[in-house]
Amino acid sequence: MKRAEILLVSLLLAASTLGATAQAASAHRGDVWSNSDGFSSNCLGFTDTYPQQLYNLANAQLTRLGYAPLRGDLGPAFTTSAFLGNVAYPWAVYAHTHGDNYWAASGYPNVDSAILQDPGSGACNDSGRDKIRSSAIKSATHGGVFNLVIMSTCMLGANSSTMPDAFQIEKTKSSTQKEFYLGYVNSTYDSAAFRFEQAFWSYLNANILHVRSAYSAFTYAMSIGGYAYPDSADPFQANWWGNPNFNGVPGW
Amino acid sequence: MTGGAIKAVLAAAVVVFGLAATADRMVANSAGGSSTGTGTGGVDAAKAGPPVVTATVINADDSPDVFRRAASARDAFGFPVGANRTGKHVHDTNRPTDYDEVEEVDRTGQPLALTQFDPTGRLVAAVRFDRPSVTSPKIDKEAATTAATRGLSASGVAVAGQYQADADAVLGGWNVHWDRSQDGIKVRGDETRVHVWPDGRIQSVAHVEHPLAAGPADRLGIDDAKKVVNGQFDRWFAGRASSYAVQQMTLEWVGPNATFDAAKLSAAPAPYRLAWVANVKPSGVAADYVSLVTLYVDAGDGTILGGDVVE
């Protein structure tokens, strides 16, 4: 017998039907945010194409995982007030922007991690003005449950990051809750984040029954190699916390 | 009301009022965003686009070579043997790539390990998904390198030249990697990489290798290449409250890309070209949110091939 020509068209059609049914039966919102104006020609002389590519990818893949409706935005609507005003509602949050582990208002050695909002059309980022602090996010979540949080930024996967706690995700790799946090440890090239996230999503969503775990997807994506990195002090390194058996599908 | 209660109420409301259709409209409407355009369709198109991964089931009868290679690699790396073995040919339009994959699965269908091969039968990835004991002994760098080299040799993956072994701060153990070079010049991102667990077992193997174009007949000198870089950044930063400093210029083989040009996003992957790679550090306003811009300058004709950004 030749290679089995069992293209999964029928399965994909079935998945579409099942997906539609699932979406009709529940609403598990996902928010996808991406800062594009800070990386546009207005600020840099060129437009970095990765913010939109990563935004598109996250939207498409969170949909396949069952999150709906999707909110958030690419560009000027990604403001601090919009992010904080909406963060109590989604089950998944994705953000691509500049991120870092800034000193807390109380000063060294306390950290209060932050991401930068989109600066708005015609403006450039000012870290003094544009930080969305993890402490503010935590307050705005009102203690809500989050299934999947992806900080597609530099540094927020480092051990010092306070961002997981903003979403009530403990920094353990043995949680039994349906929760998974993903971030990058060091300064990270856009190309590396894109390569990693493509592999992560491809592995996680390859099976329409969602039998694969987000941890396995992380492990796969880390294992494929080929990641560019800025220097030896900043090797490419992603990190995760949460439940190693959780498949990323929304819900309790 | 707590965040959990808010979500529960919203989820129930959608069920009760049957707002599935509305929810779908909300997806489309919420896509919004800027209209910078990626050349691959807008955000809505990406959401409604075709599957990014298409799989064709294969088995040991119709693809014996794939399964034989997979079993050989599994054993060479000491990966677990599953109760069952599943195979498929994967066409991933997202990355984009094609490969044959064999997965070792347990009795419940959970993956224990996988191996992937490119269309020529060359190993591209091998991964085990279990986790090592946290109480296992921790091997040193030399032992990790020995384990990696032994596994690669047993699997028939050839490596040569200098290697580097780095401690893995997140996963534990060591990353042992051989970076590819051609005629003594680094091929950016190409490598053979082995992650070795703290107990000395191999957790993953990756082999990344891109086709290379012919080198230029006449090579641009570093001074001329630096003029191209300075000219580009002078134009980019003109009239902006930012400046820059060229930190480093190295010759590398690089993949042309669309980092700075959305019109190139739909282009098929091209062979890697010899380029001057410039790491440029912004200063002033831009340093608040971009820590590095990397520019690829064709070492033959001085054109910009693409680059990368650390936001």
Question: Would you write up a description of this structure?
Answer:
The complex is a heterodimer of chains A (252) and B (311). Chain A is of the alpha/beta class. Helix content of chain A is 34%, strand content 15%. Chain A has a single domain (26-242), classed as Rossmann fold (3-Layer(aba) Sandwich), CATH 3.40.50. Chain A has helices spanning 9-25, 41-44, 50-65, 80-86, 127-130, 134-141, 163-166, 190-204, 214-223, and strands at 30-34, 70-74, 92-96, 99-100, 114-116, 131-133, 148-152, 180-184, 238-242. Chain A has a 6-stranded mixed β-sheet, with helices on both faces. Chain A has a 3-stranded antiparallel β-sheet with strand order 4-5-6. In chain A, α3 runs parallel beside α8 and α8 crosses α9. The N and C termini of chain A lie far apart (45 Å). Mean pLDDT of chain A is 90; it is low at 1-25. Chain B folds into 3 domains: 3-31, no CATH class; 53-208, 2-Layer Sandwich (TATA-Binding Protein); 222-310, no CATH class. Chain B has a 9-stranded antiparallel β-sheet, with helices on one face. In chain B, strands 10-11-12-13 form a 4-stranded antiparallel β-sheet, covered by helices on one side. In chain B, α4 (64-77) runs antiparallel to α5. Mean pLDDT of chain B is 86; it is low at 14-48. The chains are: A alpha/beta (252), B alpha+beta (311). Chains A and B meet through α1, α3, β2, α8 and α9 of A and α1, α2, α3, β1 and β2 of B.
Which characteristics define this entry?
heterodimer, A: 252 residues, alpha/beta, Rossmann fold, six-stranded mixed beta sheet, three-stranded antiparallel beta sheet, 34% helix, 15% strand, B: 311 residues, alpha+beta, TATA-Binding Protein, 13 strands, 25% helix, globular
Distance between the termini of chain A: 45 Å
Number of strands of chain B: 13
Radius of gyration of chain A: 18 Å
Helix content of chain A: 25-40%
What is the CATH topology classification name of the largest domain in chain B? Answer: TATA-Binding Protein
CATH architecture term of chain A: 3-Layer(aba) Sandwich
Task: Just name the CATH architecture of the largest domain in chain B.
Answer: 2-Layer Sandwich
Estimated radius of gyration of chain B: 24 Å
Amino- and carboxy-terminal Cα gap of chain B: 37 Å
Q: How many domains in all of chain B?
A: 3
Tally of domains of chain A: 1
Give the helix tally of chain B: 6
Main sheet specs of chain A? 6 strands, mixed
User: Strand-and-helix sequence of chain A, N→C?
Assistant: HEHHEHEEEHEHEHEHHE
Which H/E pattern describes the elements of chain B? HHHEHEEEEHEEEEHEEEE
Beta-strand portion of chain A reads 15-25%
